[in-house]
Amino acid sequence: MDFREKYGQWAIVLGATEGIGKAAAFEFARRGMDVILVGRRKEALEALAKEIHVETGKEIKVLPQDLSEYDAAEKLISATKDLDMGAVNYVACLHAMGEYNKINYETYEQMYRVNIRTFSRLLHYFIGKFKERNRGAFITIGSLSGWTSLPFCAEYAAQKSYMMLVTEGVAYECKNTNVDVLLLTAGSTITPTWLKNKPADPKAVAAAMYPEDVVKDGFDQLGKTYSYLAGEINRENMQKNRSLDRNEVIEKLGKMFEHMA
Ligand SMILES: NC(=O)c1ccc[n+]([C@@H]2O[C@H](COP(=O)([O-])OP(=O)(O)OC[C@H]3O[C@@H](n4cnc5c(N)ncnc54)[C@H](OP(=O)(O)O)[C@@H]3O)[C@@H](O)[C@H]2O)c1
């Protein structure tokens, strides 16, 4: 599907420098859109912009921005307000691993600003804008961690869960419009961040996907569903876990992540 024709000229990827965000930026360009890359590392973003432009011929802009800055969302809104914005993909999501009280509270505040504050302001702004002209797409990247609580990574799982629930609710609200909202949940995905914190669970490692596959599969679901879990194996594992009670799930995950304490 040509996204440019359906949604508009520009896509913005929040957290585009590497991993799933980089794959998303390529995919938007392959589907006809010009793309704005947002991340903190200007030089890496500029190199990526060149790479995408050479492969796809699309116009690629770089907007270096730390999403944890208090006014990050307002700066991005102001930088894009005169463009024909068609799609948004919120990818960045900070995490911290360890016993809950042993993590510095400032880390949680920084996570909160990227994962909730900036995210929610941009969701609110872009959904309003897209609804006004009755076209556009908003994709939030979710995680299996947000489907349950996650001992030793509890704040991340809770913040992720917030992003996921609000996206699904808004997706339903947009169902009778030409605004497509999708929660695209990824399981283990081979990105630089994942390689740094590779899970101990061999099943999670065996199910790991390439970011390009997560994104391609996920983008195909836009407009067809509110919430999509990428990967056949992830969906099968999820199905098996459905019979477990919440306490059993917490117990299982706690044991798996105990080494992070
Ligand atoms: N990898 C997995 O196994 C997995 C599994 C499930 C869900 N997910 C979800 O998928 C998404 C992407 O994960 P990922 O593994 O690709 O990597 P990630 O570590 O979540 O994201 C890295 C990207 O976000 C940008 N970023 C990080 N902090 C930022 C900040 N303060 N301001 C602006 N940009 C920032 C980074 O670029 P800069 O360094 O240039 O800022 C980079 O492009 C996340 O939402 C994650 O929760 C990942």
Automatic annotation (TrEMBL):
Keywords: Oxidoreductase. InterPro entries: NAD(P)-bd_dom_sf, SDR_fam, VLCFA-Steroid_DH. SUPFAM superfamilies: NAD(P)-binding Rossmann-fold domains (SSF51735). It comes from the Bacteria. Gene3D superfamilies: NAD(P)-binding Rossmann-like Domain. It holds the Pfam family adh_short. The keyword Oxidoreductase applies. One of its GO terms (molecular function) is oxidoreductase activity. PANTHER family: RH59310P (PTHR43899:SF13). Belongs to the short-chain dehydrogenases/reductases (SDR) family. This is SDR family NAD(P)-dependent oxidoreductase. It comes from Selenobaculum gibii.
